[in-house]
Specification:
It is built from 17 helices and seven strands. It has 363 residues and is of the alpha/beta class.
Length: 363
């Protein structure tokens, strides 16, 4: 036996990746039902921004780090490798979705011909130079990632623009309840689960596992929203100042009513501007709006619980959504949490739009 061979299976030293293909990254994140899809399409229309991609790899790496299953250096290494690979493959349409009905499809992108043409052009060796010349911005959409995103911020710092989309809980609870019914503990659910007593529970229930397991789908949704809200706010509070500068928080309601200030902030962060199709995307998504619920009617949105508004009054619309949750048999504890989350959200983000949430006197 060669001397020292028995030690080769166990190695020491930090893993690292000093070379990099990716120069700039934008991440659009938020809870299910927060309205991310409006922003992913809009962001994709900006100059230099690539087609939207989902990244369960990035989410899984950050979760493993959060559960203390991965070291700092390993998490940053894996993130850099996977995102370099993603921009490399995107630039030659190797990692491109051609499924027609998907939101992440080429055919849902404002510039579909770009990706169709790329599939027939040369790739591989010429791509690093192409990336250097064109400075593409990798465009990712994630779910509930911000609270666990420390290794991502550490890996990219000022190369990262992280856009957090927030929304009134009463506009998110129905979709999240449907997710509990259709995805929870299903083989096609790819989120991180962990063992709690004799059950496996998803990462977004941390701290409220008992309530999650004992409740119905709406209870599960409400306590999940509470867990994510608390952990996200704690992460933001502890984020270092120079990294906080890379985070943009956008309340959905404020954006659709008055988008200009948020768009300007996005353009400045990304060092880019709108393209010839950006205004078309805004118009298609009915932005700016005069009523919050006036979204676009697509089959995929209806599948996620969207339906046309039933009232011309914003306060009444919220009350209808609250009553719908009550009619599904939620517990008193869950209803109290939902009300507290709603009040906290209105106070934190919507004080300048107080007129929306006030009950209008009946004539």
């Amino acid at each position: 036996m060669i001397a020292g061979a028995k030690d080769l299976n166990k190695r020491s030293g930090e893993v690292c990746r000093h070379q990099s293909l990716l120069n700039q990254l934008v991440v659009v994140d938020g809870q299910p039902g927060c309205g991310k899809t409006l922003f992913t399409t809009l962001i994709s229309s900006l100059d230099r921004v690539e087609i939207m991609n989902y990244s369960t790899e990035l989410e899984s790496i950050c979760r493993m780090y959060a559960f203390d299953k991965m070291t700092d250096d390993a998490a940053k290494f894996m993130i850099k490798v996977k995102l370099d690979e993603m921009i490399y493959e995107t630039m030659m349409s190797r990692r491109t979705n051609f499924r027609y009905s998907d939101l992440s499809s080429v055919f849902s992108n404002p510039l579909p011909l770009r990706y169709i043409k790329r599939a027939f052009k040369k790739g591989d060796e010429i791509i690093p130079e192409k990336i250097k010349k064109e400075r593409p911005i990798l465009n990712l959409t994630t779910h509930n990632l911000l609270m666990d995103s420390k290794p991502l911020f550490d890996a990219y710092e000022d190369q990262l623009t992280f856009i957090e989309i927030v929304r009134h809980p009463l506009y998110m609870v129905k979709q999240q309840a449907l997710n509990m019914k259709r995805l929870f503990n299903m083989p096609r659910d790819f989120v991180t689960y962990y063992q709690y007593q004799n059950a496996q529970v998803p990462f977004f229930t941390y701290g409220y596992e008992k309530e999650f397991l004992q409740g119905n789908e709406f209870d599960k949704a409400i306590f999940s929203m509470l867990s994510v809200h608390q952990r996200t706010e704690l992460f933001k509070k502890n984020l270092e100042d120079h990294l906080k500068a890379r985070l943009i928080t956008i309340p959905f309601e404020c954006f659709v009513l008055n988008p200009d200030a948020y768009l300007k902030q996005i353009y400045q962060h990304l060092d880019t501007d709108e393209s010839s199709v950006t205004k078309k995307i805004m118009k298609k998504n009915k932005v700016p709006r005069t009523k919050l619920a006036n979204g676009i009617d697509l089959p995929i949105y209806r599948r996620c619980g969207w339906q046309p508004s039933k009232s011309d009054n914003e306060f009444e619309e919220l009350e209808l959504r609250r009553q719908y949750a009550i009619d599904q048999g939620i517990s008193e504890q869950a209803l109290h949490v939902l009300d507290q989350l709603s009040q906290t959200y209105e106070k934190q983000y919507l004080s300048d739009y107080d007129w929306i949430w006030k009950e209008v006197e009946k004539v």
